[in-house]
Amino acid sequence: MPGILEVLRTLPAATFLLFLLSEACLGPGCQALTVEGGPPSLTVSMGDEVRFNCVHDGKTSNVTWWHILQGNHTWTPMFLGDGLGPKGGEWFISKVNKSHGGLYRCQVNDGTVLKHSCGTYLRVREPLPRPFLDMGEGTKNRIITAEGIILLFCAVVPGTLLLFRKRWQNEKFGLDMPDDYEDENLYEGLNLDDCSMYEDISRGLQGTYQDVGSLHIGDVQLEKP
Predict the structure, then answer these.
(1) For residue 96, how many other CB atoms are within 10 A of its CB?
(2) Number of structural domains found in the chain
(3) I need a surface site. Which of 40, 89, 96, 134 has the fewest CB within 10 A?
(4) Integer Cα distance of 23 and 8 in angstroms
(5) Do 68 and 121 share a structural domain?
(6) Do the Cβ atoms of 223 and 206 come closer than 8 Å?
(7) Single pTM value for the model
(8) How far out from the chain centre does Cα 177 lie?
(9) What is the 3 state secondary structure string of 171-207?
(10) Model confidence pLDDT, tens digit, residues 118-145
(11) Residue 90 in contact with residue 53, Cβ under 8 Å?
């Protein structure tokens, strides 16, 4: 330690100041350039618009964009051009197609420092098929409600019309509704003499019953009931 102090005393003031700045890393060379990674992937449909952003803290940096295509064995970078926007950290594609798929990354050159972002992989998918009836859920619910009302109307109205038609025909031709008396008169037109024929035949096969009190037991044998 004493040797180092002797060396510092012998150095000029300017050299000593530069030495302190280098030790504290406060000089312009010690301020490292930072480039943010950005989103790892992005999925869009064909025909959509897409924008890539390269966020960095360089002030006089030159930003270029590269498109890396996936090959069979290697990833070959392809130069796209200088960046757009205030700090050159933007790349814009108006209408995306299948050939735009791949990895996009920016490269920032700040004089002596050269850095690039991790990149964003762009996926391009086919547009979803449009449904036959492109409508909202509220419209679908209203259509279903209207269908239910129409079905109820078709079921109730024809039955009601048939009932009124039948009643009108009965009133027109003078057909009265049957009453309870007609339902109870089940034997109308039946001869009562014919109804007692079976009873007369059964009575003719055996003797009639006699009063037990008016007969003597020894004279007559009683018929069993």
Answers:
(1) 20
(2) 2
(3) 134
(4) 14
(5) yes
(6) yes
(7) 0.45
(8) 59
(9) HHHCCCCCCHHHHHCCCCCCCHHHHCHHHHHHHHCCC
(10) 888 888 888 777 777 777 788 888 989 9
(11) yes
Task: Mark whether 37 and 120 lie in a shared domain.
Answer: yes
For residue 35, what are its two tokens? Answer: 């480039």
| Domain co-membership, 150 together with 192 | yes
- Which residue would you say has higher pLDDT here, 129 or 67? 67
Residue 221 reports pLDDT greater than 80: no
The larger pLDDT score, comparing residue 159 to residue 201, is at: 159
Residue 215's φ and ψ, nearest 5 degrees, are -120, 155
The SS3 call for residue 130 is coil
Q: Judge whether 213 lies within some domain.
A: no
Sign of CA dihedral 104, 109, 112, 113: negative
How many Å apart are CA 58 and CA 41, to the nearest integer? 24
List the domain range (segments joined by +) for residue 178. 135-202
Together in a domain, 140 and 108: no
